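Renewal narrative, Specific Aim 1. Our central claim is that a sequence can be written position by position from structural information alone. The example that follows is taken directly from our test logs and has not been curated for this report. It begins with the structure tokens describing the chain, in the order in which they were read.
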């Protein structure tokens, strides 16, 4: 029987896996990375960039707010006067929990995986709102390019510290690039504004020992897959079934692995039902096969909103492995 790590690599190279990869089982995720992220249920707060966040009671997550003058950037042409890079923690004390976690990973079995969020595109609209960020790409492209370059510099500076402290073998990087039915921007605009940044970021990781770039975008983004390959993404995590996943696997599978297919909103919900989950897992595994594909919830972390969902999905994937292998 292959190890978890070996089974993943066989799946990714279209070799001979002996079972389906079960969701995030191949990574040991180091969430203690001192990114400055806060998760304050039921509260409103400002983060280290000055972005205002809310997590209303009863909601599943938090979101940035920009009404009533709360947006950091009010005028994209004046972004330099209001956007300042936060200080990056460099002391061993600040990184101690993450270092301890990284040192404890069994790297023969799993990939020691550092976490980074939010990504470059998300940062642009966190700072000014989605509508303003999208409009600025058209109306003030030079200023937007300057902002994107500045955010890229910050991420590279943070990455340098993270690589030195943790020596991760994989990166789970978040940046949502689409809705359920469309990418947020055209492929041409994505290529112009964001491909150069991600080439720099992901090449830096690869040059410093990272083996797997896992990019999370729980969305439709089939039209961006060629660029995902170009920038060095190994696994697209979050691929929704609104993408034609079998077609993507056939066309691109030798160059990138697709991880998802189980729409979190339809399996991880209040009063979730085993019959519904089992049916979706069966359909997803049979439709997409076991090469270049990892059945997984589309959510960007190995967590559940409602108790028992992850364990039952894994149980169903095990049953499909018995049936399909």
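The sequence written for that structure reads:
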């Amino acid at each position: 029987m292959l190890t978890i790590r070996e089974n993943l690599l066989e799946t990714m190279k279209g070799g001979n896996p002996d079972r389906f990869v079960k969701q995030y089982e191949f990574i040991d995720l180091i969430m203690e990375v001192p990114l400055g992220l806060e998760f304050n249920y039921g509260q409103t707060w400002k983060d280290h960039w000055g972005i205002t966040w809310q997590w209303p009671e009863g909601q599943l997550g938090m979101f940035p707010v920009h009404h009533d003058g709360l947006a950091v950037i009010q005028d994209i042409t004046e972004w330099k006067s209001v956007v300042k890079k936060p200080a990056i923690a460099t002391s061993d004390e600040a990184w101690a929990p993450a270092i301890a976690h990284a040192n404890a990973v069994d790297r023969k079995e799993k990939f020691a995986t550092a976490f980074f969020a939010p990504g470059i595109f998300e940062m642009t609209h966190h700072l000014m709102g989605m509508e303003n960020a999208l409009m600025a790409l058209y109306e003030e492209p030079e200023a937007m390019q300057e902002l994107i370059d500045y955010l890229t510099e910050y991420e590279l500076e943070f990455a340098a510290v993270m690589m030195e402290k943790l020596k991760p073998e994989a990166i789970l990087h978040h940046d949502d690039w689409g809705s359920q039915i469309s990418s947020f921007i055209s492929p041409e605009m994505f290529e112009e504004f964001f491909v150069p940044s991600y080439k720099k970021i992901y090449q830096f990781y690869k040059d410093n020992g990272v083996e797997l770039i896992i990019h999370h975008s729980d969305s439709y983004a089939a039209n961006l897959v060629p660029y995902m390959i170009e920038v060095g993404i190994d696994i697209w995590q979050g691929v929704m079934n609104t993408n034609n996943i079998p077609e993507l696997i056939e066309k691109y599978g030798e160059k990138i692995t697709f991880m998802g297919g189980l729409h979190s909103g339809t399996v991880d919900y209040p009063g979730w039902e085993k019959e519904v989950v089992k049916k979706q897992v069966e359909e997803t595994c049979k439709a997409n096969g076991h090469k270049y594909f990892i059945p997984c919830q589309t959510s960007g972390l190995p967590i559940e909103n409602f108790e028992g969902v992850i364990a039952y999905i894994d149980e169903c994937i095990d049953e499909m492995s018995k049936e399909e292998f």
